[in-house]
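TL;DR need structure tokens for one chain.
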Amino acid sequence: SAALFVPVVTMDARVRYKAEHRILVIGDGDFSFSQGLLEHVGGSGENLTLTSYDSKGAVLSKYPRAKQTLSALRASRAHVCHDIDATQLEATLKSCSSHKKGQALLPFHRIIFNFPHTGHQRVHKNRELIQLFLSSASPLLTPKGQIHITIKLKPPYSLWDIPGIAVDCGLEHAGTLDFDQALFPGYRHQTTLAGAKTFEAAPAREARHCKTLVFRRPQAQATSAKAARPQQQKSRRARQKAKRKAQQTPSNVTQSVTGRSSSDMAVTPTQNEPKAAKRTGSRFPMKKPKHNKAKKKSHANKVV
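>> reply
TL;DR here they are.
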């Protein structure tokens, strides 16, 4: 069921990213957003994975400044990938040349898809794109990771009901932020279709409609993996305790049954134990001295 979407935007709640975030950018036509993002996070691209739907050849042929932009991104140590399908992210990302074969993908703190569109003004087609993208992106998030979709909140785009689609994909709508193009120097929205309509998000008349929708896993689901670890440790300790109990020696078993240890119970004395008895005051008596018997005998004779 689709959720009723009423965007709530607080003052100065603008999209911001951090250098320590592992960030995945989806469908960046001419990589101008990627270049602006690189500057936004301080110039290091080590944690950035920047992608296009087009092949490298198509990007270079469509966008005159693409060659210079791609060179700058690679020089920053950013991971640049082409032919990445937003609806099949894991499979197509693993085919990227920058990904080491056999290695699992590291989860991302932020996954960004700016102004997604199929290129056709068909609401159902674009809704399907969003649904497949969210289903594909969700498994690639860290437990507290977020998916950011920037879009114009006016018809026909508002008719897609993206928050409702997110709920159906098991995500929750965490908030809506203002999209400030000035935070990403040089960014200009470019579609992947040659000759398709373009626009600037900077002018006030456009900027007021451009919002970033933030989605995440429900918090209970996000913390379930963390909560499971202590429970697993507790179960492991219980198993170890049961194992130790099963391996108890007979004396220990006696102690557990009677409430007394074997050292508290009577034992057969050995040759060395009388001396110990004298030292510890145990119940093994010492023999009486012979002179005591003699003294008693003499006393008896005196009485008689």
